[in-house]
Amino acid sequence: MDFPLLLALMAIALPVLLHLLTRARKPRPGAAKLPPGSLGLPVIGQSLGLLGAMRANTAERWIQDRVDRYGSVSKLSLFGAPTVLLTGPAANKFVFFSGALAMQQPRSVRRIMGEKNILDLTGAEHKRIRGALAEFLKPDMLRLYVGRIDGEVRRHLDESWAGRGAVTVMPLMKRLTFDIISSLLFRLERGAVRDALAADFMHLFDGVWAVPVDLPFTAFRRSLKASARARRVIAGIVRETKAKLERGEASRSSDLIACLLSLTDDSGARQLSDEEIVDGSMGTLIGGYDTSSILMTFMVRHLANDPDTLAAMVQEHDEIAKNKGDGEALVWDDLAKMKFTWRVALETLRLVPPVFGNFRRAIQDTEFDGYLIPKGWQVFWVASATHMDAAIFHEPAKFDTSRFKDRQSATAPPCSFVAFGGGPRICVGMEFARIETLVTMHYLVRRFRWKLCCDEDTFARDPMPSPLHGLPIELEDMSSP
Known about the structure:
Blueprint: H1 3-24, H2 47-55, H3 59-70, E1 73-78, E2 81-86, H4 89-97, E3 101-103, H5 107-113, H6 123-136, H7 139-160, E4 166-168, H8 169-186, H9 192-203, H10 219-247, H11 256-262, H12 274-303, H13 307-322, H14 332-335, H15 339-351, E5 357-362, E6 366-368, E7 371-373, E8 378-382, H16 384-387, H17 430-447, E9 448-452, E10 459-461, E11 465-467, E12 472-477
Parallel strand pairs: 2-8
Antiparallel strand pairs: 1-2, 3-5, 4-12, 5-8, 6-7, 9-12, 10-11
């Protein structure tokens, strides 16, 4: 964002926000005091500093500098709103379980994902949408998905990896996970519509964490346009599914959209509008494909330089393959034998959590650790504050799968490993992500060997982590004659 644009933004919003922020600085007599820190410039606040640190891969240091300066609770301004940053296990527990806080993404996220996306829903609305998702992600359904995911993974590797001397991992992983989620939960067949929707989702996050001002040539404008195109496609799918339900060609169990359309109240009236279904579908697609693709990309990145971990994974998967016939698909019971691979995934998530942090909104004046969080303020928590805390995870920069021998570090206090969030809002698709990760890695490590093309092994966040140049690798197909 250039300097003239910043001046324009400040000129537009300065009178109103200066009044609001000045008033927000004054706690009521006798009330708990506001946390230490500064709200910074109107509109801008500390947003550009955080975004710059994320893109430079110094965001963990940026957060730690604030903690060193102000303590585990501090105030700042992010994306146009006064914010309280909370860090540490106790803070995470407060964020995940407090009834005084509600989910609310920054305005930029809501504009792009829709006002009724599942990340922002509360109360009965959230329960309805989450319940519908849970219906398709319950164990009985997940067992059925393993074979279909197996087929999608093998087709993807045959078409996009086999016979190539080099590939770029991240876009391929994004397309794989998008195909899996769109096929399983939306019954969207391969073809031009799915290709166009996938292309829009690739650009959807360009301006998710940005100052929410819709001006030409900004990342926020690009994201809004990609979102509008994607929403039109999904709205068309909703109309088609509605017609199929009316003709008896689909049922509530056909796919997620059919289930959402079939939700009714006691009088038989539909519970959700078309807009709510589109917003819910957008959030599900984003949550279902982006985070898993990042996890698998960074697993590939780590394994390129860790031959011992790779060898242990190959041994685990060779043992599973020995008991299966040629071409036989993986089944649910096979996944239970992939314990070491999942520990590799969890340690990857600890070191590079796809979601750097998230937001809540105070729905009433509340307190934490003796500080006031005023009603309407944002609350910001970050994963790195506990993931990289040496008091919780010994030698936190070291890759150590033994931390997760018992599914979670035995020495870590609750709410320390938060790659999937926590509390009632813990990721509903966590088990689905586990399945697609394990199936993909089973075929990937048995079939290919690779090395990194870039000497500089780094990544940036925008806001999701992305390795340098999308992680180009030199590829050797071990199954080739």
